[in-house]
Amino acid sequence: MARDFDARRGVDVDDDELQEQSLESLKAQRVGAAADLGDDVDALETELDLPDAEVRDEELSLRVLPRQADEFTCTSCFLVHHRSQLADVRRTVCSDCAA
Fold first, then answer.
1. Which helix (H) or strand (E) holds 21?
2. How many of the other CB atoms lie within 10 Å of CB of 16?
3. What's a Pfam family in this record (predicted)?
4. Nearest C-alpha neighbor of 91 from the set 73, 67, 66
5. Is 98 helix (H, G, I), strand (E, B) or coil?
6. Residue 7 gets which letter from DSSP?
């Protein structure tokens, strides 16, 4: 049997009453959501239980060496490679990016 989904449905409740009910339910949801925002703990963080959450405030100490004489920086991937991986001297491209 064919059904016209665009046709207005017969509802016993008046449109004004229906709108008031939906407004009241939206206000109740908003109040509930506002109460959830009061926590200092991130909801996503508690939900996912991140493994390195306690490490994120630590400062990393890493010694960075300047580019050595036998190394080059690829102009495509911007990684520092050994000269043995140089594929094109003119363009300064590594063998991975040249392939």
1. helix 15-36
2. 8
3. DUF4193
4. 73
5. helix
6. S
Q: Which tokens go with 84?
A: 């043995």
CA distance 37 to 81: 48
Closest alpha carbon to 89 in 68, 67, 77, 72: 72
Please write the tens of the pLDDT for every residue from 24-50: 787 777 776 665 555 555 656 566 665
Q: State the DSSP string of 30-64.
A: HHHHHHHTT-SS-HHHHHHT-TTTTTTTSPP--PP
User: At residue 77, what is the residue type?
Assistant: C
Q: Which two tokens stand for residue 40?
A: 């200092």
- d(CA 70, CA 75) in angstroms, rounded, equals 16
